[in-house]
Amino acid sequence: MIRPALLALLIAVLTLPAFAVEPGEMLKDPALEARARELSKEIRCLVCQNQSIDDSNAGLAKDLRVILRERLVAGDSDAEIKSFLVDRYGDFVLLKPPVKASTLVLWYGPLAIGIFGAIGVAVFLLRRRDGGGVDVAPVPLSDAERKRIDALLSEQDGNA
Hints:
57% of the residues lie in helices and 0% in strands. It is an all-alpha fold.
């Protein structure tokens, strides 16, 4: 039987993020490698789309990590590296793209959908509570309709 402490340790180890950086990619300078790791957490894997290149095992993510490290060794600043990648792949390559006209839908679209959805639900609930908002009196049956109903009911009673 697994002891609770051992089980907790196993779960803690298994839930740690799995970094995809391979030993051959790492820079020998610890300061540059630390910069590379921090910067690669801000760059989106264009294959996985919801992971950083630091976390992704995709081939393109590896290529982007190599490019990022080459640019660091060449002496580029973090901003220059991001600019280089944005020029090649667009704002989508950044996990946190800048707020500008072309990304307004990305930033504020979910908020707008939430607001319109909440308004729609509120209108639906208010109409349902009020019975639709329109009070319509039932139309009385005509004599012909009453006779037809009576005939059908008496026919049913005769068959039962």
